[in-house]
Amino acid sequence: MLVVMENTATPEQIDRVVKVIEEMGYQARPMPGETRTTVGLVGNDGRVDGSRIEALAGVAEVIHVTKPYKQVSREWKQENTIVTIAPGVSFGGSEIVIIAGPCSVESEEQIVEAARAVRDAGATALRGGAFKPRSSPYSFQGLGKRGLELLAVARQETGLPIVTEALDDEGAHLVAEYADCIQIGARNMQNYSLLRTVGKMDKPVLLKRGMAATITDLLMSAEYILAEGNTQVILCERGIRSFDTMTRNLFDLTAIPLVQRLSHLPMIADPSHGTGLRDKVIPMARAAVAAGADGVLVEVHPNPERALSDGGQSLYPDQFARLVTELRAITAAIGRSVAPTPGTAAPARG
Amino acid sequence: MLVVMENTATPEQIDRVVKVIEEMGYQARPMPGETRTTVGLVGNDGRVDGSRIEALAGVAEVIHVTKPYKQVSREWKQENTIVTIAPGVSFGGSEIVIIAGPCSVESEEQIVEAARAVRDAGATALRGGAFKPRSSPYSFQGLGKRGLELLAVARQETGLPIVTEALDDEGAHLVAEYADCIQIGARNMQNYSLLRTVGKMDKPVLLKRGMAATITDLLMSAEYILAEGNTQVILCERGIRSFDTMTRNLFDLTAIPLVQRLSHLPMIADPSHGTGLRDKVIPMARAAVAAGADGVLVEVHPNPERALSDGGQSLYPDQFARLVTELRAITAAIGRSVAPTPGTAAPARG
Amino acid sequence: MLVVMENTATPEQIDRVVKVIEEMGYQARPMPGETRTTVGLVGNDGRVDGSRIEALAGVAEVIHVTKPYKQVSREWKQENTIVTIAPGVSFGGSEIVIIAGPCSVESEEQIVEAARAVRDAGATALRGGAFKPRSSPYSFQGLGKRGLELLAVARQETGLPIVTEALDDEGAHLVAEYADCIQIGARNMQNYSLLRTVGKMDKPVLLKRGMAATITDLLMSAEYILAEGNTQVILCERGIRSFDTMTRNLFDLTAIPLVQRLSHLPMIADPSHGTGLRDKVIPMARAAVAAGADGVLVEVHPNPERALSDGGQSLYPDQFARLVTELRAITAAIGRSVAPTPGTAAPARG
Amino acid sequence: MLVVMENTATPEQIDRVVKVIEEMGYQARPMPGETRTTVGLVGNDGRVDGSRIEALAGVAEVIHVTKPYKQVSREWKQENTIVTIAPGVSFGGSEIVIIAGPCSVESEEQIVEAARAVRDAGATALRGGAFKPRSSPYSFQGLGKRGLELLAVARQETGLPIVTEALDDEGAHLVAEYADCIQIGARNMQNYSLLRTVGKMDKPVLLKRGMAATITDLLMSAEYILAEGNTQVILCERGIRSFDTMTRNLFDLTAIPLVQRLSHLPMIADPSHGTGLRDKVIPMARAAVAAGADGVLVEVHPNPERALSDGGQSLYPDQFARLVTELRAITAAIGRSVAPTPGTAAPARG
Q1: Is residue D247 less than 8 Å (CB to CB) from chain A?
Q2: With a cut of 0.95, is the ipTM above it?
Q3: Percentage helix, strand, coil, to 5, in chain C?
Q4: Which of C97, C184, D215, D331 could lock C295 by a disulfide, CB 3.0 to 4.6 Å apart?
Q5: pLDDT, tens digit, 9 for 90 and up, residues A89-135
Q6: C310 in contact with D at a CB cutoff of 8 Å?
Q7: To the nearest whole angstrom, how far is the Cα of D290 from the nearest Cα of chain A?
Q8: Is B91 at the interface with chain A, CB within 8 A?
């Protein structure tokens, strides 16, 4: 940490900063400059609360040099973490994982049909919401526990492992019982209570970036999960808030190489929520993979015109099949490959 | 709702839109224009899910004309809702309420000293966190239930009603037991499960705007609480994310007159989190009141240099006393007044 | 400047950074920390280009401690700069200046009627566009030189000094000939060629903040003007881009105390463009003055329904008159006053 | 255009809106709904100024359905515009164009060395700044006309056509004389005077998106150029302002398919400014091409450690060579190809 003094700071004010740093148990190194003095804090273990020092007279600014996260950092663990949600379905290695399926589970027929369609097209895992975070209390909120049961039926029918969202503690325990990976959505990225709950579980977690979250915020939220002992965390870019309302969100693909350099955790991308527009999903899924994503999360519905939610951003099954073919070509171009559909000996060739 | 067709849309595609609208139980009115047709949906009760129509061929855009919220709207209820958190402490009338106190409850001595200081300076209510949402799992997380007990002691000593934050269901029940108003923080503004929980309680709720929340998002989150039956909701602007990191957040004061026109609920502002800088809190608290806020939420610490959190944005008690004097002059200038400190016959004069 | 090395940086990489800093003519002070070394650059005169050092191997980050602006800084000049645009009309002292008038000059009748209306209501100066920066090439672009002549007529009739915008070099020379203050609009805030042109003139400049400009960006643009010799610069907040489209812009009033602490230049605010909504202009003008603005810029039209541009955000003359009365009360509450209308012995009382 | 009335609007207020629309020369179609009336304006030719109607009593909102741009629209011209800057170097067809070179022209030796390096690696055109828009007036501002002469020397030596920026009218005429394509930078995207100047020229223009520009804003600025008669316009995404300062800008790749659907003009991307970080340039250049960009603009410097500007985001020549190889593989995966280096019979194979 570096404390920048005002150019009018008195020697007494500088001494006071030095003393407070020492009281906190660290070393202080004043560094007089041309126009102002800066005081370095040496020995920061990531627990220093800068606001105490910001409050001192004569302090212009406190600059954090040490990153606030620890266990998620690549400085803590050099090699990639591989997160395996089912036999043969792993994130963080050379294979990229394609998770596909409808926004919501609507009925047994719908989810089984969707699961078969995405499996036949080359998906590696199945998505589908049983608990839906809707901005209106009057919108369809998902089938709840019944939705989880139907997802289990779809897994039984297709062999695809299941990724689905939990909204609260009770839901998290239910999801853990039925699914292969618990999704924490963007709106709950800083629901620290829920993060602690899934941090205590022995189940992979897919953590989506919040709409106003910086990369550091995202990593700090993952840190909550790791701090409780669960290291099986997959991160996901899904678009952030920006000023142009032409798309639902601004899909920030640079987040992928940024996170991959700072952290050992796998990072995937969700072009369906990232753009909110069906005809943008395909080019942006390609772009995500070209940028180095360890997987993509894509909404596909057997009949988007009849979807109870997000119909406008869901792909038709045949569009999805073409996308998988393109993703195979792009992964090959950068020395990677698409993970095979579970139960198949090798990836089907498009 | 208005469905804008592409300029190349065929008559069949327009017919299909009309039919889907009718299937959904509404009337459709096609309106051919110079370059394109638009189709109006008549009879929208706020439950129409536009994504189903967005998914149809030939549709360029779906424009929502009806606001998605209902019970929070001024069209639903014309006159201001008055929220009373303790005898004589009401939000939404001509008096503005000053809620002040430290970021966190740290000890009995600290919170009682703070409560006395803010009461003597003219505060109307006491704030102080027992459950703290911290971005790092390694930072001070608040005293929990013990913090609530200490807040009750401070209320006993000073007569000030208490506003404090809950982070989850269990905490919400505890806060409801001890405090006069439950705060839902910015990070949980879209934690719908928690909103439903406090919506079922008979206790006023202070709902803070999330960092990426539009005004519509804020009102929709309040709608979750009202939809469960609790109409005692106070809204709060506390700064949103923007591109200039010189302040912690961007304090959006225009939100105050915007919300007051769209909704009957009271709207206050938090200049401490809104700016994150002690010397900006005073001018921005004045500005909030001049913009029409129904109250302000201000961090004051008896000894900011020793605060366990947010020291850099906490006022010294004497700064706060000067602020209250200025706020009295500004409220007078716009025909309002500062609510008196509970237990005093009339407001002390600065 | 502070160079943060990666935690894996080798001694050779640190030496290389030291050497490059010394080659650039500064002193280097390596400061080994717990997990990484940082190297301080001492003697920074504001001309150091960090990108050369960012390019070196082993460098994680370059942190700028010295502010990049000089002459606009309060460290360069401690006392407020007073900018006088006409006898008795000064920005930066205890009086606040009210500049009012229509978006565009449309005709002699319109501008003279508007000028009389705003003068009678208590305005101190007249605004009105002759050169209009319109987002569409097909929209009304202003009357050009003829507009300037009509503004001069209005000044003749009312005694109000004139503030009007220039869009390019040629226009700047024309505006300088006719008006009392040259406005540089938000879209041209980083048109450095135009900034240099007005920097060479002996005429006050009103520089508006760009829609994506940080406070530092705004001050750097002002620095361009001062660097050419013109120190008569007034800064203006007029709203920035944000994610909520409910208002045209996000009016960032915290910019006022921020700029006033960092710079000696006066800072005003434009609530008309800052909000884009007529009924929000009045509360936000009050808020701007309460936040400490040295003036406000308000659009007033004798007949907003017939305005050729910005009708929806223009005040009616009687609304403006009420606003001036409120601003007088608020300035009194904070120990300031509204500057009197030129030619009147003392401010007219509302 | 659609005028949404307040739910309390009177029949007289609705009549007034109808009358004003008719006075403006359009047809009005009132459409009574469940809770409010909306009035459609039929016959909008893109010149309707909504602000006049926003100003009327009882109007809640004015919604623009017709896009404000015309000649840039794909509705105006269905097929792609192909912009050719030199024989064999065309944007908008199936080939993607790689423009590479240093941020600034620094010396004859530097620019010729850079030009040879990027040509040998497979670039199709040369970039290099002679006029530099720097945020500080004290930074290196480019070599000006001498820089243009050196670019011409580099073209002579390598056969690569030249793209370089103009900052003002005078500079635009000079650039047009020496270069093959005039770049208008992000800061000048809404410098309408400069847009008109280049709109009158017979020279291709590369228009970069401004930091706060929506897609509509970008297209409107292009419309200024086309409205003057110059249809040879290439658009460029180069990152916008957002809240995370970890990267210099937020690189918005979804802009590419968005623009390509709305407009017939070619759209390229600049990952160097889009990210500002050397090790992010390569994955994001790949992502841009996978998203469908018609070209990329990449900063390459023979010796980034010695660059006078932007050293930290410039690629080393060998990194650039590897990037070109990867881009060839990705274009092949999506049925496109990298445009060959001028003067070579066929693209060199990596």
Answers
A1: yes
A2: no
A3: 35, 20, 45
A4: C97
A5: 999 999 999 999 999 999 999 999 999 999 999 999 999 999 999 88
A6: yes
A7: 5
A8: no
